[in-house]
Amino acid sequence: MAPDGRTLAMDADLRQWRREAGAWRVVGEGREGFEGRGVAAHVLAVDDAWALALGGLLHWDGAAWTTLGEPVGLGFLDLRAAPDGGTFAVGFGASVVRRAP
Questions:
Q1: Distance CA 71, CA 57 (A)
Q2: Are 52 and 60 a contacting pair, CB within 8 Å?
Q3: What angle do CA 78, 83, 87 make, to 5 degrees?
Q4: Phi, psi (deg, nearest 5) at residue 93
Q5: Percentages helix, strand, coil for the chain, rounded to the nearest 5?
Q6: Rounded to 5 degrees, what are φ and ψ at 92?
């Protein structure tokens, strides 16, 4: 949910979507080379989204993607971003990895 109350989402191609007036519209482009590779995402705002994809942890700043690297290896299932800029990836076997801001 965006600060303005609108719903935000990300698809497997890492495109960001916002629900407005009963319809979905793209508000951020996906990352080239990561089409269909998105595993999990945490969208804080249209200019602050985190994605866990096969091949890396990525951040969207509203203008461009930054690849921050692969968090330990494959097998992660979910991702959460903290307000301080840190991220948590959760995977098989109860593994949890935190990336400091």
A1: 7
A2: no
A3: 35
A4: 65, 25
A5: 5, 50, 45
A6: -60, 150
Distance CA 39, CA 79 (A): 9
- Residues 42 and 24: their CA atoms lie apart, in Å, by 17
* Spatial contact of 42 and 77, defined as CB atoms under 8 Å apart: no
Read off the amino acid at residue 40. Answer: A
Q: Examine the pLDDT at 73 and tell me if it is beyond 60.
A: no
As a whole number of angstroms, the distance between CA 52 and CA 39 comes to: 6
Q: How does residue 24 score in pLDDT terms, banded at 50, 70 and 90?
A: very high
d(CA 6, CA 4) in angstroms, rounded, equals: 6
Q: State whether residue 92 is helix, strand or coil.
A: helix
Average pLDDT of the chain, as a whole number: 80
Residue 72, token pair as written in the block? 């330990």
Half-sphere exposure of 9 (CA within 13 A, CB side): 11
Both structure tokens of 62: 């509203």
